[in-house]
Amino acid sequence: MNVKQLSIFLENKPGRMAEVTRIFEAGRINIRALALADTSEFGILRVIVNDNEKAQRLLKEHGYTVGVTEVVAVEVEDRPGGLHRILAALSEDQINVEYMYAFVRQSGRNAVLIFRFDDVAAAAKRLSAEGVRIIDGQDLYAM
Amino acid sequence: MMFNEEFETMPREALESIQLRRLQATVARVYNAVPFYRRRFDEAGVAPADIRTLADLRKLPFTYKADLRDSYPYGMFAVPMELVTRIHASSGTTGKPTVVGYTTRDIQTWAELMARTLAAAGTRRDDIVHNAYGYGLFTGGLGVHYGAEKLGASVIPISGGNTKRQVMIMKDFGPTVLTCTPSYALHVAEAAEEMGVSFRDLRFKAGIFGAEPWSERMRREIERKLNLKAMDVYGLSEVMGPGVAIECIEAQDGLHIFEDHFIPEIINPQTGEALPYGTPGELVFTTITKEAFPVIRYRTRDLSVLHPEPCRCGRTMVRMGRIQGRSDDMLIIRGVNVFPSQIESVIMETRRFAPHYQLVVERVGTLDQLTVLVEVDESLFSDAIKNLQSIERDLEKNIRETLGVTTRVRLVEPKSIQRSEGKAVRVIDKRTI
Question: Given A9, A16, A98, which is nearest B381 (Cβ)?
Fold first, then answer.
């Protein structure tokens, strides 16, 4: 059910992102969602792709340090208050959001939120109780 | 396992009488054959006849690396060129290399000591030695090679480099003993992992690693990753090459110095004063059997300590501790003495892994700034920025608390720190003073 995200360690210098996208292009890897967290010296590129195993293998072959993290993808209505409803529920249960990012689906009127939780099980339980639709990993990779 | 039990287990008294006889002969010979030594001895007011006991060695002046460089290339040779059958040279990272020569007998002595070295590390006649030390001017490759042949083992003269091919040969030829630098051993382990080759499926039982300082933790890392017993070997071309001292596989606790050929001393690097057993300081060697290139009280700049206690392997020869650093690699950062090996052990203490790291020293304004670059591998990595930053802060804190020096720790991408197939580049000093 959960979604696998690849995290890639990058030094903060010109061309490092382009090198990753070049590897993806050559390997026919399609990026579903992406977020970059950075400091002045290094960054972590977080990506969800159509083929995790292949992407991970290609990156390792090129000497990158790659981690695999379980994240939760949920669908929210693309309207004011959509995100707030979810965050308020999580906050009520004291569930910490490590980080999150969002993108809007081409089809339909819904946005997709990617959450990284410390406690994935507790978060998933509360979100389901709230009636939030959790997107299956396979669906997201194939989106 | 011993190649020459008679000498390796000789009672101290008998050993010391051999040492004295050989020392006296060497001192007389260099005085007569090498103008440099005659001049130095005369300046110090000491003559060969003054060496009556082993303690009299301390009357002789030191020989420095700079002296060898000043006599480039052949000024320190003690025999005419017609008797020299081999020439080697040190890497010469600063300026000209140091050139050393060997007579036929020197080569035989070296082969004997390397045979002892290989045997001490558990090598037998039916073993296959994968020798990944560089062949060439560097003494590592040919040193191991001649020793393995003398012992009667099979040697694969693969030399350094082309790591993928090395892994293939390890898989196909079934070598049982590995000889290379410790940093190259880890490099091979990485390459094998990337190629999907497990050392569990290889036949290695022992490795002899040297030519650069390493640590106990790095030993454990190598033993775990390469699935073998790792022994530390010591040597330097000025004294002979590898095979000056070796750890025994029985104890793995200090390197036995072949004292029937070399007399070790530990001195205070600042004052030159000889220090007693058990006190750390700079290693000084006098060769007592070499013909072409004898050295008298040669300042190695390597920091170590000598232990005279008998070893459970039965050897009576004194043991030297692992090299703790170099008295000339020592960095002085805002008045604090720092050795790369100290930083390495803090990193390993904190993170429990053998890092690829590099120290970069810069002068920012009037202040020295030490940056520690550490490569991020999977065991360190996290998808959260705050975890990576806290690794940096933890390391900075532990280095500050252990060494008393403030550093900046920076995580960098894997393989971004310069690798050498031979020696690791641990320090980059950008200060211009």
Answer: A9
Tokens of A56: 């991970």
Cβ–Cβ < 8 Å for B167, B138: no
- pLDDT of A110 over the 90 cut: no
All structural domains of chain B, each given as residue ranges with its CATH number in brackets, are 1-328 (3.40.50.12780), 331-429 (3.30.300.30)
What tokens does B90 get? 């040190």
Same domain for A33 and A77, yes or no, is no
Our CA-based measurement puts residue B388 at a distance from the nearest CA of chain A, in whole angstroms, of: 9
- Closest by CA position to B74, among listed B43, B36, B27, B31: B36
Distance CA B197, CA B143 (A): 29
| Closest to B325 measured CA to CA, from B335, B339, B336, B313 | B339
Do residues A127 and A35 make contact, with C-beta atoms less than 8 angstroms apart? no
Residues of A in contact with B413 (CB under 8 A): 9-11, 16, 63-65
Are B383 and A67 inside 8 Å of each other by CB? yes
Q: Is the ipTM of this complex over 0.85?
A: no
* Contacting residues of B for A99, CB less than 8 Å apart: 384
Q: Which residue range is the domain that position A36 belongs to?
A: 3-69
A116 in reach of chain B (CB within 8 A): yes
Q: Which residues contact A115 (CB under 8 A, 6 or more apart)?
A: A71, A72, A73, A74, A97, A100, A123
CA distance A68 to A8: 9
- A42 and B388: CB-CB below 8 Å? yes
Q: The whole model's pTM is what?
A: 0.69
Model confidence pLDDT, tens digit, residues B159-218: 988 999 999 999 999 999 999 988 889 989 989 999 999 999 999 999 999 987 788 888
Burial class (CB in 10 A: 0-12, 13-18, 19+), B55: exposed
Last residue of a domain, one of A69, A99, A115: A69
